[in-house]
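Reopening this ticket.

The earlier resolution said the output was attached, but the attachment link was broken on my side. Pasting everything inline this time so it's all in one place.
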Amino acid sequence: MKTWIWIAVCFFLLAACGPRQYSGGKYVDPSKTDLLSDQFVETDMQKIAKDLSKSLLKSPITNEPATKPTVMMSLFSNATDEHIDMIALSQKIRTEIFKGQKFTFLNERLRGKMEKEYEYEDEDSGFVSPETAKRKGSQTGADYLISGYLSSIRQPVGRREIVYYKTTLELTNLSTGEIAWTDEVELKKTFRKKHVGN
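Inline output:
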């Protein structure tokens, strides 16, 4: 009898130590704040994009021209000690600004593909009818470049840690090279370390 109990206990322990899989998943509100780690999280990205886009859309530069300025997203720099998807951050900011309908955006990421498409549609290729083919020289030039810079400071103090992020957004005039607008968003989060059991 004791042998069977021992076998059952061993089987249970082996099963408990085996590989685990997630199950019973469900959708949750993506805007809900869950600060489960001291890393850059989706709510940080959402707040940065919302605050900076709101500031730009309220700036005097959006009221000056009779037509919407044409803008292009430039390289966003990551000066933190984390691997942060800067493309996702810049796209989130662009989407929020786009919703305001104050700017016309150019798709800088597809320029290489558009160049190849122009070659494919060239009249010498014979692939596309001349009536529908798009020609080089018809694209709209950008009036402004939007660029960003993200930095962070970590302050571990005993069992506490303070994490500070600063994101700066700039709108640069392509004709003059002048910074036509800039603003920044600061985030500060505090955490307390504790032992987590298995």
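Reporter confirms the inline version is readable. Residues 2-17 form the longest helix (16 residues). The helical segments are 2-17, 42-57, 86-99, 111-121.
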